[in-house]
Amino acid sequence: MPTPMLESTERPEAGKRLRAERLRARLSTRDVQRLSHQIAQEKNNNQDYYISHAWLTEVENGKFTPSIYKLYSLSLIYKCSYVKIMGFFGINLADAVEEQKLVGLPHTHLIGSNIELVGNEIVLPTELRKNVELSRTNLVSRMFESWGEIPVSLLRQIDLQRRLFGYIGLEDYTLYPIIRPGSFVEIDAHQNKVKAGNWQNEFDRPIYFVELRSGYACSWCELVGNQLILVPCPQSRGQIRQLRYPHEADIVGRVTAVTMRMAEVDHSRQSAPPSG
Fold it and tell me: How many structural domains comprise the chain?
């Protein structure tokens, strides 16, 4: 049964690691061919999942990069995580969260609650747990000088199961400067009714994430009859919008937390020679 060899990128180190996984599983290339044939049959006879013994030998010799389907078959056959096998070829899903910052989208959109954290649970060192007082205001860089990443104890305060997360588009200045473009917001979907009241100041006023027919908005809201009024921050100079509720807009939930950069790094200052 011939297998198309469309992949051509040479990966000698990845091939060696794949061979090591096969040998660990005590399988021959013929065994892999037979097992992959079973997988292909289970996948409606999709030959993208099939791996011939000759093709596998070429891959292990670093001649080709497998497709995502063949990598999936190998992960099943070798009883090895798909994430680990992808790592052999330079794709690290653990970097995806950080690398998403490389792409800034112009429009506000809902991220969702199905964020998948790659890897096992990380235990916070006893010394760090003992010395760090998360209840006090401090510089994060000083609190965790010995760590290159923000500790898991902070991530555990984010409830991924009961919260949604939204991204404020780079062109969305509705609540600027309270919520700046490019920010991420945490949303409590249970609080999806506009709360009426007299607020002492703008910081006490509830902020809502709203689904529109053409996208999303993050704004203060007022509900007058069947009219949902999106109220911008006065400093943003944005326009008040009125929408028919719920025909033209729906409340996703109330914003309960926000993370944002307060100022861009000034690289010119860092490289400028000292005055005097």
Answer: 3
